[in-house]
Amino acid sequence: MEVELRRITDENRTDVLAVAVAPDQERFVGTVAGALREAAEYPEAKPWARAVFADGQAVGFVMLSWDVVPDPPHIIGPWFLWKLLIDHRHQRRGLGGEVVRLVGDIVRREGAAALLTSYTEGEGDPGPFYEKLGFSPTGDRDDNNEVILALDLVTAPS
Ligand SMILES: CC(C)(COP(=O)(O)OP(=O)(O)OC[C@H]1O[C@@H](n2cnc3c(N)ncnc32)[C@H](O)[C@@H]1OP(=O)(O)O)[C@@H](O)C(=O)NCCC(=O)NCCS
Fold first, then answer.
1. What is the C-alpha to C-alpha distance for residues 104 and 115, in angstroms, rounded to an integer?
2. Nearest Cα residue to atom 29 of ligand 1
């Protein structure tokens, strides 16, 4: 399966906005439309958004804070995985893990030493997903009490 990160354009926007998690997962990540609204609202968080395509089909969405000046606990960075969602019909097929690897490679080439992320704790939260990929809790939390995790990009295999 070929997994690609593509810019969101007028041509693919409708398909990307149709990507959705299961209703009980929305509390962890929301919707693509909501993420794009947040991106527009918080330019200081340096949003970088891409659609995830697998074999030419829109299956997910990823958004980073791109080399942002950290201002914890509000802005975590410099390289922060802000949103990651894989359509519920395409989950558990390795796509989420592949997106994290692709993003890790992209930011490592920009000089990032670590990729940070955070999640809201609860039944079905993505904590085990991130820990399988090599993220570990930093011990800190953000201003929404989300657990902050870091993936070491220097020693982690790509
Ligand atoms: C979390 C998410 C991105 C994972 O995407 P995915 O494509 O299903 O993940 P993968 O198939 O690459 O899974 C990689 C590994 O993590 C495991 N995993 C995935 N989601 C998991 C979960 N919620 N709980 C426990 N393990 C999980 C998979 O079983 C797999 O393990 P394996 O390698 O031993 O088989 C996806 O479930 C999602 O969009 N969830 C809702 C939104 C969300 O929580 N986003 C993250 C916070 S912004």
1. 7
2. 92
CA of 79 to the centre of ligand 1 (A): 20
Which domains are present in the chain?
3-152 (3.40.630.30)
pLDDT in tens, the chain (158 residues): 899 999 999 999 999 999 999 999 998 899 999 999 999 999 999 999 999 999 999 999 999 999 999 999 999 999 999 999 999 999 999 999 999 999 999 999 999 999 999 999 999 999 999 999 999 999 999 999 999 999 999 985 55
Cis amide prior to 73 (ω within 30 degrees): yes
Q: For residue 157, report the distance from its CA to the centre of ligand 1, in Å.
A: 19
Q: Which residues of 17-53 are buried (b: 16+ CB within 10 A; e: fewer)?
A: bebebeeebeebbebbeebbebbeeeeebbbbbbbbb
| CB distance 89 to 82 below 8 Å | no
Q: Yes or no: say if 147 and 118 are a contact pair by the CB < 8 Å rule.
A: yes
d(CA 79, CA 64): 7
Q: Look up residue 46 and give its two tokens.
A: 């340096």
Q: Tokens representing 89?
A: 């019909």
